[in-house]
Amino acid sequence: MRRLPQLTITSALVLSLSACGSDAEDSESADLTVWFMENSVPGEAMDWLVEEFESQHDGASLNIQVQPWPGIVELLQTSLPDAGQTPDLVEVGNTQAATFTSVGAFSPVDDILEDLGGDSLVESGLEAGSWEGEVFAPPLYSGSRILFYRQDLLEEAGIEVPTTIGELEEAAIELNEANPEDSDGFTGIYLPAADPKTLEGWLFTYGGDYATQNEDGTWKGNLSSPESIEALEAAQRLMEEGSEYVQDSNEAVQAASELFNAGNIGFYSHLAFAEHDIDEELWEDDQVGVMPLPGLEEGEPGVTFAGGSSMAISAASEHQEMSQEVMRLIYSEEFQTMLAEEGWAPGNLDYAGGLEGPTSEAHEIAVEASQLTPNTPDWGVADSAMLPAEIWTRIGNGEDVEEVAAEIDAELEEILND
Amino acid sequence: MYAPAPPTPARASRIRQRVTPYALLLLPCALVILALGYPMARQLVMSFQEFGMAQQFGQPPEWVGLDNYLSILSDSYFWVVTGRTLIFTAGAAGATMIIGVGLAVLMQRVSSAVRVTLQLTLIFAWATPVIAAVAIWRLMVDHRHGVVNDVLAGIGLSGFQGFHWLQANTFTFLLVGAVVVIWASTPLVALATYAALTQVDDEVLEAAQLDGADLARTLWHVVLPIIKPVLILLAILQVIWDLRVFPQIYSLQQGAGSTSETNLLGTYIYHTGVGGGSYGMASALAMIMLLLLIILTWRYVRILSRQGDLT
């Protein structure tokens, strides 16, 4: 019993402290936190953002934290609702945005949309970040997977540069067998199951999809459709006959450019920024070629996943006005241009001029022909249950394609129609 | 003639003796209520609500009565995961106890230099942070460069060349999980049992020897009854820890092909709640798991609390 008074004092303290917290809104001494994702915004742009913000706002500080992609939906779900824990601004993947915009986790930015680029913002990105007519998460950048390939190895093996996805499969399988420089652990194409974003290129290019929406708004698993089955079978054959690192873990996928530099990979699929990870020497000696994923017919691009990120202000943030200031800086010409230089297609198309270098042409084609995963708040749930990775892992392990497709279809329908 | 007797010092001390235990209980009880009571109460309430992502961000939740419980109990996947968890717990806790007690008996019978080395090794295993331990084991069972496959292939089992333990099937995944768990929890069992063994009176053992009992009979009929309270306590702890195992399985799942094929109750609750955004459902699941744990350990906790029956 004697402890009780102390308890009351403690809770009174806690209460008054949290009261202080809300008083501090938008004062000059605000400390803001921004979460960017790994492999996303270049460090140079982050430094610029901090310097610029802090020089414009005396006494305010900006703290940037970089979060890993795996597990981010869980992390955001538990951090965003709590004013004490939430970052003030977050970067979210475009396919994850709906999970949060639909439940009011973000503050609308319609009032400042003109300052952020207005009509110059990528339209599909704006759509992905809107909910019931309000814009919450404008597009930060978009990017699609492209193929880097060793043209010298193709030449040595006497293989033509492929122009259709079918030819690509043949070329990778042939190259895998030829292994022209006789290197240990050589693979025709690097196609790990833990990289669903690359493998989705096969699914979409063959005309398949994970799920389609019925007229009544419910979702139907679509992996068992003839087009999807064709795609899954093509991918399975390629993983079995043309690829050696199918079971690589997520960590290994992140470091695969090392394998490419060591001459162990013929075809390497990655985002455009991977051009910076490839050895200078390989570029100088003209050993590396870049192309978009080819389509079913010659001259037609393949359809890859329309990757991209959006920025949003947490609704629970105590610094709403200051956060809008940070948004203005992120959508400024300087910041967007730095994103373009990194190899992304910036959210504001006016600043896409910064896109240059060996990957820009292929990347532009890939982005134009890209496609989103099913756009529903529940896709974030399917994603966090690692369903996309599961499909490709099971197919890569040689399981029966039609069986896997039917099973995952059922699981997808359960999650998406929840 | 008779003045009322003043309270004697003896009586005051008796009162103090009666109050002191309760005063001492107050702090731990208050701490437990603070740290566990509130979340438990919230969990109980939420298990009767439809509580999803929208509620997490401030929408009022809807009462659904027993709906969450009914849909869990009628879901065949729940029973698969529960069965899997019980088998995992029995296997891991059983193996931990057997290996741990075996090591303790061994420690009694080796020279002190060997014993100290063994104890130090065990303490290192005990002190390794869970996530670090999982990372080490993941490297060891790596399909491409792992030492486990190298050794197995080296002794002629060429089928293990490139074998992916975490992706091959549910059994091999849980086997790796169990090894990580057993590896980390054996030291406590071994050291605590060894400590208990040192308390066994030498004279009792000598008497048994004089009566002609061999090692197995001495251990079974003389030593075991004496250290039984410690063993029961350790076994209960193992069952509790292994039933609610989470970080090991969750980290290993990052390298597995399928979460649904590798879930135990702990990770299933996590993926349902935090991953899937169905907090109401996850709360109901957690309540069921708590009930399961109580059913499993109830008898032994009661035995333990009636200490008189144990010795």
UniProtKB/TrEMBL annotation, chain A:
Belongs to the bacterial solute-binding protein 1 family. Coiled coil: none annotated. GO terms for cellular component: ATP-binding cassette (ABC) transporter complex, substrate-binding subunit-containing. The lineage of its organism: Bacteria, Bacillati, Actinomycetota, Actinomycetes, Micrococcales. Residues 1-24 form the signal peptide. The keyword Signal applies. Pfam families: SBP_bac_1. GO terms for molecular function: maltose binding. This is Sugar ABC transporter substrate-binding protein. InterPro entries: SBP. GO terms for biological process: maltodextrin transmembrane transport; maltose transport. Keywords: Signal, Transport.
TrEMBL record, chain B:
It is a multi-pass membrane protein. The chain crosses the membrane at residues 21-41, 86-106, 118-140, 171-197, 218-241, 279-301. It is found in: Cell membrane. It comes from the Bacteria. Residues 82-300 form the ABC transmembrane type-1 domain. Its main location: membrane. One of its GO terms (biological process) is transmembrane transport. Pfam families: BPD_transp_1. One of its GO terms (cellular component) is plasma membrane. Keywords: Cell membrane, Membrane, Transmembrane, Transmembrane helix, Transport. The keyword Electron transport does not apply. SUPFAM superfamilies: MetI-like. Gene3D superfamilies: MetI-like (1.10.3720.10). InterPro entries: MetI-like, MetI-like_sf, UgpAE/MalFG_permease. Belongs to the binding-protein-dependent transport system permease family. PANTHER family: BLL4140 PROTEIN, DIACETYLCHITOBIOSE UPTAKE SYSTEM PERMEASE PROTEIN DASB. This is Sugar ABC transporter permease.
